[in-house]
């Protein structure tokens, strides 16, 4: 397979290495990957205490130390659970991944909208009308189908991180798949692996769904010109705007949706329509113009549109949020995507989108075969009074959620990765330390901070947590604004904080962080039908998991930004894309929380980034 340099993003549009299928390539690669290790118990216990130090009070820590001692003592429950985990690791492809998908996603009952599914904002495209929208959307579909050829043929370039090959499984999970609501737990179906893989996408326009077949009879993908003709037919057939927005049901709390789903699919027509959406390769949402999108706030408005659709007056009903991958194309050049998180992390999604965007920029060369194509099939829904009632309730909840979410996207234009790199620092660590400083300045305390770290060096690896609030970052942020301290001391502390972050990152991506291990031990206790061990009932554990800052770096080649909601009511979501000479970032918070303010934190991050740069430039490091 072709090799690429950085995580999730080949540096140029990679041609499929083979036009025909290379069966077995994927499995051969996967089998060569190491299994996820179970870290040593003592190591995790020690690192857990260290991670708690900057975020809990001294007396809480004393208590937790005692609890940990009891947990890890010879012959204690910790050892028993550790043995259980090690056995599980020996018997499964990945001891964590199935548990993780269940606990982090499928058992999680909050709406996927805002609470779980990220949005992605692309740069505004250069069309401003319906014709331009349709032309662009056609090329986008063709671009995804081109990428899909690499997946189908098993010729997708393998990605590397730190010189090590990564697990490519997530690429095989994002197309032709969908989340299905359940009464207590959801599931995900992936039709790509079925004996008759789907040949259609779904298109939604003015809340109306269509099945669009995207392959010719001879198996070749429709060309952009052919797709253009088909999308025009769809738009002409769905001009009226008073249709019941049945897609809004997917924005509900999962238990509520699980119940109304059963009611919805009792009707045969509805069941067939829902099944067509679930089986489709992906969903394309054709929106109108972005409301309120002007000037500096344009990207923030676009982010809202990608994250939740803007409420029922806008496009929240023009979606099927259970669908793993939804591309969104507005009439005014606004473009992006929304994805359901259970099957994959951001980087594979962004890598796919990078390819698609590059594809849309190339002139179309494929010649369309002669002959007309069948009219795309409208997916019909019979709306009973009960379904109508469920739709009305979903509308209310969605609008409350939309009003509650505050989203601020910034393009920090002063510098990007170039400055930390020039000072021999990890740009990711630099940004995380700036965020710690911004938070400390606002709240005068450090908080539990989550940054996702890729575990894809391991077979079926997903993520672990980098805990960005460390003892070193705490010392730095507490000193930075102290006028009695010299720059030299501040710089020394900054260097230590950045290094501590990078070293936590290395530990996390090599499977030696603490969070998934602790979760594994907790789930193992449940598996062995033991009562919940005291370590997991300790208030410090709850504090450690209450992430006031939930963060993620999602790098890309395209000048885009991903966004997501906070994971606690009084927290922030912070997603960033460090480009070479600027940084795109998106901050979210809930308006219902009086203590948080996305715009404020975004401003504080900009200021902190500039302050860090100034410190680096004003202080000769040779004196350290
Ligand atoms: N001096 C000079 N350059 C340095 C440096 C140093 N001390 N440290 C790092 N760099 C360079 C790197 O070589 C790299 O160069 P490139 O831009 O040419 O590729 C660049 O700076 C970026 O490195 P860094 O900022 O340290 O981050 P990273 O790329 O190693 O990423 C993580 C760190 C944690 C984001 C990554 O390991 C990861 O796990 N990503 C996945 C996250 C994820 O899944 N998110 C989605 C959740 S939905």
Automatic annotation (TrEMBL):
One of its GO terms (molecular function) is carnitine O-octanoyltransferase activity. One of its GO terms (biological process) is fatty acid metabolic process. The keyword Iron-sulfur does not apply. Transmembrane segments: none annotated. CoA binds at residues 417, 421-428, 502, 553. Residues 36-606 form the Choline/carnitine acyltransferase domain. It catalyses: acetoacetyl-CoA + (R)-carnitine = O-3-oxobutanoyl-(R)-carnitine + CoA; 3-hydroxybutanoyl-CoA + (R)-carnitine = O-3-hydroxybutanoyl-(R)-carnitine + CoA; 2-methylpropanoyl-CoA + (R)-carnitine = O-isobutanoyl-(R)-carnitine + CoA; octanoyl-CoA + (R)-carnitine = O-octanoyl-(R)-carnitine + CoA. It holds the Pfam family Carn_acyltransf. It is a peripheral membrane protein. (R)-carnitine binds at residues 450, 452, 454, 463. Its EC number is 2.3.1.137, 2.3.1.7. The active site is at 341 (proton acceptor). Monomer. Catalyzes the reversible transfer of acyl groups from carnitine to coenzyme A (CoA) and regulates the acyl-CoA/CoA ratio. Also plays a crucial role in the transport of fatty acids for beta-oxidation. Responsible for the synthesis of short- and branched-chain acylcarnitines. Active towards some branched-chain amino acid oxidation pathway (BCAAO) intermediates. Trans-2-enoyl-CoAs and 2-methylacyl-CoAs are poor substrates. This is Carnitine O-acetyltransferase. The lineage of its organism: Eukaryota, Metazoa, Chordata, Craniata, Vertebrata.
């Amino acid at each position: 397979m072709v090799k690429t340099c950085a995580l999730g993003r080949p540096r140029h549009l990679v041609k499929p290495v083979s036009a025909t299928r290379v069966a077995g390539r994927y499995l051969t690669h996967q089998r060569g990957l190491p299994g996820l290790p179970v870290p040593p118990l003592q190591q995790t216990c020690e690192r857990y205490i260290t991670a708690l130090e900057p975020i809990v009070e001294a007396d809480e820590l004393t208590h937790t130390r005692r609890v940990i001692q009891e947990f890890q003592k010879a012959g204690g429950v910790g050892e028993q659970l550790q043995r259980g985990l090690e056995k599980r690791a020996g018997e499964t492809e990945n001891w964590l991944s199935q548990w993780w998908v269940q606990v982090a996603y499928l058992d999680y009952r909050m709406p996927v909208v805002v609470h779980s599914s990220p949005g992605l904002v692309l740069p505004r495209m250069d069309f401003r009308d319906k014709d331009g929208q349709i032309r662009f959307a056609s090329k986008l579909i063709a671009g995804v189908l081109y990428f899909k050829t690499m997946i189908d043929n098993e010729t997708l370039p393998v990605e590397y991180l730190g010189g090590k090959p990564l697990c490519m499984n997530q690429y095989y999970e994002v197309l032709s798949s969908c989340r299905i609501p359940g009464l207590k737990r959801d599931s995900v179906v992936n039709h790509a692996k079925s004996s008759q893989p789907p040949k259609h996408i779904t298109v939604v326009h003015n809340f109306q769904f269509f099945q669009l077949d995207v392959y010719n009879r001879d198996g070749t993908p429709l060309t952009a010109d052919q797709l253009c003709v088909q999308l025009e037919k769809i738009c002409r057939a769905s001009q009226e705007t008073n249709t019941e927005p049945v897609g809004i049901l997917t924005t509900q709390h999962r238990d509520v949706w699980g119940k109304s789903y059963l009611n919805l699919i009792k009707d045969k027509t509805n069941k067939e329509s829902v099944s067509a959406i679930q089986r489709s390769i992906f969903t394309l949402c054709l929106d109108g113009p972005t409301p309120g999108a002007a000037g500096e706030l344009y990207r923030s408005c676009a982010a809202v549109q990608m994250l939740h659709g803007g409420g029922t007056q806008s496009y929240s009903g023009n979606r099927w949020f259970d669908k793993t991958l939804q591309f969104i194309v507005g009439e005014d050049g606004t473009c992006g995507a929304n994805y359901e998180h259970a099957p994959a992390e951001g980087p594979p999604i962004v890598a796919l989108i990078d390819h698609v965007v590059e594809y849309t920029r190339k002139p179309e060369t494929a010649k369309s075969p002669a002959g007309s194509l069948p009219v795309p099939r409208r997916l019909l829904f019979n709306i009973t009074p009960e379904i109508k009632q469920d739709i009305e309730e979903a509308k209310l909840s969605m609008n409350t959620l939309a009003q509650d979410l505050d989203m601020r996207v910034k393009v920090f234009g002063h510098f990007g990765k170039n400055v930390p790199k020039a000072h021999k620092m990890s740009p990711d660590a630099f940004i995380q330390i700036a965020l710690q400083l911004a938070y400390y300045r606002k709240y005068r305390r450090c908080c539990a901070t989550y940054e996702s770290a890729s575990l894809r060096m391991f077979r079926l690896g997903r993520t672990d947590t980098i805990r960005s609030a460390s003892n070193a970052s705490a010392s730095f942020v507490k000193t930075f604004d102290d006028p009695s301290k010299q720059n030299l001391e501040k710089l020394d502390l900054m260097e230590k904080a950045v290094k501590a972050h990078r070293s936590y990152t290395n530990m996390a991506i090599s499977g030696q962080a603490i969070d998934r291990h602790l979760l594994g031990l907790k789930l193992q206790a449940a598996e062995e039908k033991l009562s919940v061990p005291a370590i997991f009932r300790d208030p410090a554990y709850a504090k450690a998991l209450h992430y006031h800052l939930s963060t993620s770096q999602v790098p890309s080649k395209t000048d885009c930004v991903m966004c997501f909601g906070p994971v606690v009511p009084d927290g922030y979501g912070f997603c960033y894309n460090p480009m070479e000479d600027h940084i795109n970032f998106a901050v979210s918070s809930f308006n219902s929380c009086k203590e948080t303010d996305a715009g404020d934190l975004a401003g504080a991050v900009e200021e902190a980034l500039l302050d860090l740069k100034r410190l680096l430039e004003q202080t000769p490091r040779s004196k350290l």
